[in-house]
Amino acid sequence: MAEEPSKPDVQRFTREDHDVTCCIEVLCCGGTRLILGEEDAELIKTCWCGTCNDKKRGPYGELGTVDSSQCLCFYGFRAASIMPAEGQTQCIGCGCEKEKVDSVVEELKKRQALRGDRAKTRMAETTVSSLSLLHKKVDAIMEQLELPPVTAEMER
Predict the structure, then answer these.
(1) 94-152: pLDDT as tens digits
(2) What are the CA-CA distances from residue 47 to residues 21, 25, 59, 105 (Å)?
(3) In this structure, are 61 and 133 located in the same domain?
(4) Closest residue by Cα to residue 21 from 1, 51, 44, 54
(5) Phi, psi of 151 (to 5 degrees)
(6) 84 and 124 both lie in a single domain
C-alpha cells in the first residue's frame, strides 16, 4: 500500500562512473565504463584503441532484469537493455571481483527501484493517499462549520 504522504518516495542520484573492464578487453586494447546518471544508465565499450565503440543507454525504468551471474569462479553482471548483445554478461577485472559486481548490481537495482516504473507506481499511490487525507480534512472542516455535504445537485 502507499507510504506516508509526508514522506515522498523521491530521491536524487549523483553521477557515478564505474570502470567495468574485463581482462579480455584489456588484451584487445579496450575497456568498458558504466555511467550511472540521475535518470539513466549508459554502458560504453571500446576496443582496438578506440577504433570500435559501442554505447547503449537506457532509463532505469527500462533496464529490465538486473542480475549478477557466476560461471565457475568468474563473476559478472547483466542489465538486459544496456548490454550490447542479448543475454551477455559483463565480467569485471579478472572475473573474481564478486564484491565489485555485487556493488554494481545493488546500485543499479536501487536506482531502478527509485527511478523506474515501480517508483512511479509508488509515487502515484502516495499521491492517492495524500488526496484521500485531504478529503478527510475537508470533510472534518465542513462538519465543524456545519456546512451540508456536497451533493451531485450542488456540483452543477
Answers:
(1) 888 899 999 999 999 998 888 766 667 777 888 888 888 988 898 888 888 888 877 76
(2) 11, 7, 25, 24
(3) no
(4) 44
(5) -115, 170
(6) no
148 DSSP assignment:
P
Alpha-carbon span 48 to 41, nearest angstrom: 24
| Secondary structure class of 83 (helix, strand, coil) | coil
Q: In this structure, how many other beta carbons lie within 10 angstroms of the beta carbon of residue 117?
A: 13
Close Cβ partners of 58 (under 8 Å, ≥ 6 residues apart): 40, 41, 42, 81, 82
For the chain, the first-to-last Cα distance in angstroms comes to 34
- Residue 89 shares a structural domain with residue 127: no
Pull the grid cell for residue 67. Answer: 542480475
**How many domains does the chain fold into?**
2
Range of the domain at 137: 117-147
